UniProtKB/TrEMBL annotation, chain A:
Listed InterPro entries: Bac_transglu_N, Papain-like_cys_pep_sf, Transglutaminase-like
Lineage, top ranks: Bacteria, Pseudomonadati, Pseudomonadota, Alphaproteobacteria, Hyphomicrobiales
Domain of life: Bacteria
Domain Transglutaminase-like: 161-221
One Pfam family named in its UniProt record: Transglut_core
Protein name as catalogued: Transglutaminase-like putative cysteine protease
Signal peptide: none
UniProtKB/TrEMBL annotation, chain B:
Signal peptide interval: none
Transmembrane region(s): none
InterPro entries, alphabetized: ATP-dep_Glu-Cys_Ligase-2, CP_ATPgrasp_2, UCP005522
Pfam families, per database record: CP_ATPgrasp_2
Domain Circularly permuted ATP-grasp type: 71-447
Domain of life: Bacteria
Coiled coil: none
Listed name of the protein: Circularly permuted ATP-grasp superfamily protein
Amino acid sequence: MRVRIRHEITQRFAPGSRNLSVTVRLTPRPHEGQFIQRWTLDLNSDGRLHPLEDAFGNLCHAFSVDGPTDHVTVVAEGEVETFDTTGIVRGTVEPFPPALYLRETSLAHPTEAVITFADSVKDASPDPLSRLHALMVHLHETVAEIEPTPTIMPMSAHDALVAKASCPGGLAHLFTAAARHLGSPARHISGYLAEDDEGTARHWAEAYVPEIGWVAFDPGRNLCTTENYVRLAVGLDAFGVAPMRSTGFECRESVCAQDGRVPTRAVQSQSQGQN
Amino acid sequence: MRQAFDEMSSTNGHVRPAYETLKQWLSTVPQDVLDHRRKEAEYIFRRIGITFAVYGEQNAQERLIPFDIVPRILTKDEWGRLSKGLEQRVKALNMYIRDVYSKREVLKAGVVPEDLVYKNPAFRPEMNGQRVPHDLYVHIAGIDIVRTDPDTFYVLEDNARTPSGVSYMLENREIMLRLFPELFSMHKVAPVENYADDLLATLRSLSPHGGHEPNVVILTPGIYNSAYYEHSFLADKLGVDLVEGRDLFVKDGIVFMRTTEGPKRVDVIYRRLDDDFLDPLAFRPDSVLGVPGLMSAYQAGNVTLTNAVGTGVADDKAVYSYMPEIIRFYLGEEPLLPNVPTWRCREADHLKYVLEHLPELVVKEVHGSGGYGMLVGPAADKAQIEKFREKLIADPGNFIAQPTLALSTCPTLVEQGIAPRHVDLRPFILSGSDKVRIVPGGLTRVAMKEGSLVVNSSQGGGTKDTWVLDA
């Protein structure tokens, strides 16, 4: 499938701000399931984009804005050809061995509730892949997916579990925290979901299965990723995949991802705070 | 516990040669004169404002660290052995950190277990594959040393993040010179005053690019930090700017300092700020103490951070227990300074032993410091031991245990006169791109309470001037 994406982020700053530093994580890398046909980044200011790669192999850009200004806008736009790999993710840049992805983070912290939740599928199967599927099903049945809340980071694993409802980012935190507790390396993925005439930014998870490799699970939709998914960034949690990091106070995102063959355009907007 | 080795009187009561003159002098000076000088020293400390705040206390008010006027003396030979061992240790620490963030040979060889690195909160994935200027990570190390007999010095702890205390080492010497000039004329004491020059030379040698005179700054979290005095003291001694995060900014991968004459490029940052707070774009997004974009400048190789980011992966107490193997692995040498035997509670058989011997052991948190969260078995009552046992069983990986060492004692002026008190030693090791520099001595910390083994200033410990005799 050919997916067209337009992702615009505007970060607000106090009026008259000077010497601002911004990092964006807005450039997808290819893997066996996706081929980047065209990708551009645009700034509303005259800053120069310095490409860099973060620790997890994500393509980032750092730039400075002299100011004075009260906002910075970045637009990422491009086309990605995707293929269905039944959720198996191969051909990615892997700076770390899977064992690193057993690390705990504050957003994917195994609290007692998370541990109890994870342990309930511990004996579902001796096979790690089946156990991870059982975890996804159990998560899907326990915690409902809701629209992302504006202006905050995704919920933590614990909060998502307790609230029994969470945005996809919170579901991914819960999935990764539980999978790690069960001994499977797991990580947080940001990207896009293109479906017919509607496209969104989305978070999901990947878990490592020996002899197969990394497998992508979207617990909110109870499936392994398909050709409708475009993978943007990987990290230990939502902090690690944040599309923009800076010191401003309000961040507004608008994302449009659509099947390149469908001529209509649908735009979905959401606000997401970085701080 | 067996009787501790006293550095002046040995265990058999014979005065050791290095202390002969001091002992004689002490016996001729009346107690009230000593008391008077001690008060004078306290007055000077108070006047110069060298205080610290204790975290976790309700009115975290500024406190004076007790200063003991009786110096601690090491011979040239003892120091020679110590400094060789320290240099070896810091060399291995640097090689270990470099490896952990690049090829990870030490993990592949199974010398250190993977999870101790990957699951370590102090491991910074952001540093993976990142070359640092001159391949040096720990430029300023504080290695804590304890002694149990005339010949045995143990490393008790490595401090590879932002070790503090050097201002006390320098102030203590200055005050001793003022109060007891006669003692210095009777001994040939190696100077420590050149520490500031050594530190500046080290920092300058670490500049990411040679050539012009690099601009060095000290980055402090601000006046509320317990070590703020030291930050401003060092900036003053080095003649460099003391800055806070808001004084710096990053433009196109280069760090600048705001000055009245416009932006000035910064080459080396001696940062006294924890990793977590360094850059809100890379680490804690709520940090207002750091410099946005600093990590991207660091990644671009345009600035040196001293110490490097992520050095904590080498100095927690679990990694400590592997240091002898780490030294052998990288240097192919036997450690010149031994470790204190350590049980790793993460290992089942070690945990079993520890749980069975709690009343005899010292149990510490892997990431603890400042003497907090530790159990000194012989000094604890039953209830404390049982409470600790529960903590230990709940999270064994978080603890290590060591035998209760009979730390050496040094003569110390207390209310009843001169009496032995337990001491340790923190020498400071500077690793520059040109060479390693260690000023003779370091900071001697002393447990002022009789019998106490806890020398941390937050727990009522004091300090002493440390003399290395030149002849």
